[in-house]
Design brief:
Blueprint: E1 7-15, H1 19-31, E2 37-41, E3 51-55, H2 61-67, E4 71-75, E5 78-82, E6 85-89, E7 93-97, H3 98-109, E8 113-115, E9 119-123, E10 126-129, E11 134-142, E12 152-166, E13 176-179, E14 188-197, E15 200-209, H4 216-229, E16 234-251, H5 253-258, E17 265-266, H6 282-293, H7 300-317, H8 319-329, H9 338-344, H10 349-356, H11 362-369, H12 377-381, H13 386-392
Parallel strand pairs: 1-2, 1-11, 2-8, 5-13, 11-17
Antiparallel strand pairs: 3-7, 4-7, 5-6, 9-10, 10-11, 12-15, 12-16, 13-14, 14-15
Helix pairs in contact: 1-3, 1-6
Amino acid sequence: MATQSSNTRADVVLVGGGLANGLIALRLRTLRPDLRVILLEREKRIGGEHTWCHFGTDVSPGISGWLRPLIVHRWSDYEVRFPGHSRALKTPYLAITSQRLHEAVSAALGQDAWLSATASEVSPHQVTLTDGRRITAAAVVDGRGPRRSRSLALGWQKFLGQEVKLTSPHGLTRPIIMDATVSQLDGYRFLYVLPLDASRLLIEDTRYSDGFDLDRDALRADILAYANQQGWTVEKIVREEHGVLPIALAGDIDAYWREARAQVAEVGLRAALFQPTTGYSLPDAARLADQIAALPHITSAHVRACAEAQSKTAWRKRRYFRLLNRMLFRACEPDQRFKVLERFYRLRLPLIQRFYAARLTLWDKARVLIGKPPVPVSRALNYLSEHSVIEDRPA
């Protein structure tokens, strides 16, 4: 990393080098090349160790176009597996890796991608690093991951994934988005498998859980056991990734934003921008990056207003998804949650595509609930309102 002076001026400072700020950096360099953009990442690599996926139907053609150089893997379809139902679905599925994000943002920003740089103080127009350096800017954008809040009630999607090289070809031709034929542990459990080449896989053990504790050793053992059950012999573990993603159950989005520091823009998971049920954040992050880059004035106040407006609008439009999540997390026994998803995946493909894109029609919403409910009606009625869940959550 090049040596930076103790006092630096920029137009935009992006605090945190995750997906949201990485996409904002790329859009600003493309659409606003006159601005000096500095990105701060506390680790030695932008993006950490992650794989971000989305369906081809999740984003607009325009966004798909500028995301294209970031796509590392692309499949034309995917499959799901449950104890009583398996299915292949014809929808493109695409993956961006943190390595590709790091390469793209580093190339775009050059010496203005500051690695191993940790912010100690963040204010609307200045960031101070732990080594005493200061950056002043018209816009400061905070993308350092989720912010804990008493205003939101959450469940958790936690996972550990390993990219593995096998001793022989695995035989998969498409991703397995959910393999819930496995034993149900710690909530709704499924395996997620991406075929990266003929003998290389990303295998993730995922749990939809009430708690956010992640037992990495246990999940590593469970991944190995799953690979063995499939007849795959692991020759080498190439890399590992893990995470704990929020699943929205209820909340007061206005109160959540009142808790944030005035005029400091928050983006990504910190802005509560994610698909409420799946936890996918890439589509929201890409849309916000486009909106920020198109602002007539890039200041902390303007970016904050843009991010807050998108966050509140998305939260209110997605109330139905939080209702479904409450049915899953509160009204259903943990080891029976897989039945809800198994039933869902019997629905028509266009509805499933609109569900992932968070664009359900009124008929879609009715269709999801029509038929024999997968959870006890008496218990479900207790969690119809978000207010009841806010009051009912643990301290």
